[in-house]
Amino acid sequence: MLRVSNLDLAFDQLILAHNMSFELAPGKTHVIIGPNGTGKSSLLKTLFGEVRPQRGTISFAEQPLDYKQLNQWRQSFGYMPQDIRLDIGLSVLEVVLLGQLKALSLKLADSLLEQALRALDQIGLLHLAHRDIRTLSGGQCQMILFAQALMRDPKVLMLDEPVSALDLHFQQVLLEHLQQQTQENNWVSIMVLHDLNLAAQYADNLLVIKQGQLIAQGSPKQVLSADLIHQVYGVETDVLYDSLGLPFIRTQRQQKQVA
Ligand SMILES: Nc1ncnc2c1ncn2[C@@H]1O[C@H](COP(=O)(O)OP(=O)(O)OP(=O)(O)O)[C@@H](O)[C@H]1O
């Protein structure tokens, strides 16, 4: 279990979390949603130990985050940040292998190489293994960073808007793979998404954040109502339900279309 208790987080006068508490269970995909600039990325950075909160405690598997032992804390984490630009002269395979940086030495173990190639194969990008990472498209880069995060074999996997550059096919590949691996390996997976329909489809647990408050938490069916969406984003929506009974959100046009 990843536990956050009584978290206060602010940059000067800007309050991003006020007395925030939540628990994230293993084997589940947890999705954070909320308006731009509300502090979702900062919250992930706080869990990673990159940003220090003013108050509160964070623990994983009953071990508290100790800032003097950050390397040890981060060994449990795979972290895929929002920024996907990679301006380094490495091949795709080398970038994936960096996920296992601590295991790399002058002689590369065959098993590690196989693991990296398998990770690329599983997401359908083995054919890119020997390309220079700088020659890839934005979406391809995003998928490679996902493979790198998987390579870490994390206990906690954090993904900040991991599908922002992906087409429909690769959105599905990444999110299905993530959910399957999370269940099989009992990871705590935490993902920031803006697309409420993807959040509805893939979240086991949805956390809604606005102005420093966790204003709702639960299954997408429990959480995603037109009222809540209006409260969070100020947007009128119709909330429908798909064939699996999951919410499906459609925004209402502000202006009537002229025929
Ligand atoms: N190191 C920092 N110092 C000062 N302010 C910061 C710092 N990092 C982030 N902020 C501010 O904190 C606020 C929240 O930023 P953050 O990136 O966490 O939001 P977000 O919810 O992830 O946004 P988005 O949905 O747009 O990606 C923003 O106003 C941002 O400018």
Automatic annotation (TrEMBL):
Q: Which UniProt keywords apply?
A: ATP-binding, Nucleotide-binding, Translocase, Transport
Q: Which InterPro entries match?
A: AAA+_ATPase, ABC_transporter-like_ATP-bd, ABC_transporter-like_CS, P-loop_NTPase
The cross-references to CDD domains, in alphabetical order and at most eight, read: ABC_Iron-Siderophores_B12_Hemin
- Superkingdom, natural source: Bacteria
Q: Name one GO molecular function term.
A: ATP binding
Please give the Pfam families that the UniProt record associates with this protein.
ABC_tran (PF00005)
Which residue numbers delimit the ABC transporter domain? 2-236
What does the protein in this record do? Part of the ABC transporter complex HmuTUV involved in hemin import. Responsible for energy coupling to the transport system.
Supply the PANTHER family for this chain. HEMIN IMPORT ATP-BINDING PROTEIN HMUV
What is the official name of this protein in its record? Answer: ABC transporter ATP-binding protein
